[in-house]
Write a structure and sequence with these properties.
CATH class: Mainly Alpha
Number of strands: 2
Largest sheet: 2 strands, antiparallel
Number of domains: 1
Number of helices: 15
Order of helices and strands: HHHHHHHHHHHHHEHHE
CATH topology: Hydantoin permease
Shape: globular
Strand order of the largest sheet: 1-2
């Protein structure tokens, strides 16, 4: 196991900062514009504090047990239960791959139309998908450690340029609320983004040199990067009425560089989605190679990107929250509070945990309708965790287990 423990603080800081620098985060930040700048920033920070804190806890399980994220769900739900969530996670990650590729392709296409009059959205989608496949092919040592660190250094500089473009007009800092979005809705859109990484983080923290390096590197990298992207999108939507990154980059007179920036930011995020889709698939079918499956998932995501309706993006985020918020509320409760920390190979399904999870999914949509001040994820995770803790003593035997032959 020691051979695998090769990633330290800097690797995680760069990995998750790079994951956070994405067009999707900028666009989501732009959705918060009706709240005004100051209230929008408050919602972003509050949502990310909660979401990133939960994300770090999920990552700690991977570091301590040296298992991928979806394998860790066997602790609470059993082997077959983890298969269910693996399938849902693969669907989520293929969806994210499509979202990231199409948003980047649209932005790159806008730049190419202005620079050269070239309108080839399909070509850009296929090309970006191919680059994601190249990143996956570089592997953990090449893609995750070396190439990713170089890419993130470049993206850090670009993030500063974007910030200067957006906030050269300080009037955004005093923009009042325009109405049309509640504070609770803004918090929910902020907490959902780190939440979407919950079924992935342990896929990478299992390779950590130490719990401290994985927790602090992942937490700080993602929190700083994602908040920054959200705030850039928020400011751009308020000032210019447009949080589209290509418009900002062209406004900075970056020209051809704008295209490279858009593509690089997408690749450093999307390869994590595709790679973890391979890891989740391997949880159900361990005979398949994670990297090869990840390449196939990228092809599928690229094909979906060719007809994905990006206008349904907000509904996609809510669907992710409804599934994974109660799931990880149960897992984190069982691991850190109940202290049931080991995968039991004999347990195939834990019906009690699945029942609580189903109740949590239903509760999530109720809170979405209520428009609660703290959003839906935070209260639903707290209620689900409390419910699981109360019922665990009564339902822990509600399991379907493998029957072993009795030795003669």
């Amino acid at each position: 196991m020691a051979k695998k423990s090769t990633l330290g603080f800097n690797h995680y800081l760069f990995l998750w900062f790079g994951a956070a620098i994405s067009i999707a985060e900028i666009l989501t930040g732009g959705l918060l514009a009706p709240l005004g700048f100051q209230s929008g920033v408050a919602a972003i920070v509050l949502g990310h504090l909660a979401g990133t804190g939960i994300l770090v806890l999920a990552g700690l399980i991977g570091t301590q047990e040296r298992i991928p994220a979806l394998v860790s769900t066997r602790i609470s739900f059993g082997k077959y239960g983890s298969y269910l969530f693996s399938v849902l996670n693969v669907l989520q990650l293929v969806g994210w791959t499509a979202v990231m590729i199409i948003t980047a392709a649209r932005s790159a296409n806008e730049v190419s139309k202005i620079l050269w009059g070239l309108d080839q959205l399909t070509l850009w989608s296929v090309g970006i998908g191919g680059l994601v496949m190249l990143w996956i092919a570089l592997g953990r040592e090449g893609g995750m450690k070396k190439a990713n660190m170089v890419a993130v250094l470049l993206l850090l500089g670009i993030t500063m340029v974007l910030s200067s473009v957006v906030f050269k007009d300080s009037s955004a800092l005093f923009a009042p609320a325009a109405g049309g979005m509640s504070f609770g809705q803004a918090v929910e859109l902020s907490v959902i983004m780190p939440l979407s990484w919950l079924p992935l983080i342990a896929d990478y923290t299992r390779f950590a040199k130490s719990k401290k390096s994985a927790a602090w590197g992942s937490g700080l990298g993602y929190f700083i990067g994602s908040c920054w992207m959200y705030i850039i999108g928020l400011g751009a939507a308020i000032i210019a009425g447009n949080s589209e990154p290509s418009a900002m980059l062209l406004a900075a007179n970056l020209g051809l560089s704008a295209m490279g920036i858009i593509i690089l930011a997408t690749v450093t995020t999307t390869f994590l989605d595709a790679y973890s889709a391979g890891v989740s698939f391997a949880n159900v079918y361990p005979q398949f190679n994670e990297k090869k499956v990840a390449l196939v998932m990228t092809v599928i995501g690229t094909m979906l990107a060719l007809w994905f309706n990006i206008e349904q993006y907000e509904h996609f985020l809510i669907a992710i929250g409804s599934v994974f918020a109660p799931l990880f509320a149960i897992l984190l409760t069982e691991y850190f509070i109940v202290k049931n920390r080991k995968v039991q190979d004999a347990v195939l399904v834990n019906w009690g945990a699945l029942l609580v999870w189903g109740a949590g999914v239903g509760l999530y949509y109720q809170f979405i309708e209520l428009d609660f001040a703290l959003g839906a994820t935070i209260p639903v995770m707290l209620i689900t965790a409390l419910l699981h803790k109360i019922l665990w003593g009564y339902t822990k035997q509600w399991t379907y287990c493998k029957r072993y032959p009795i030795a003669s």
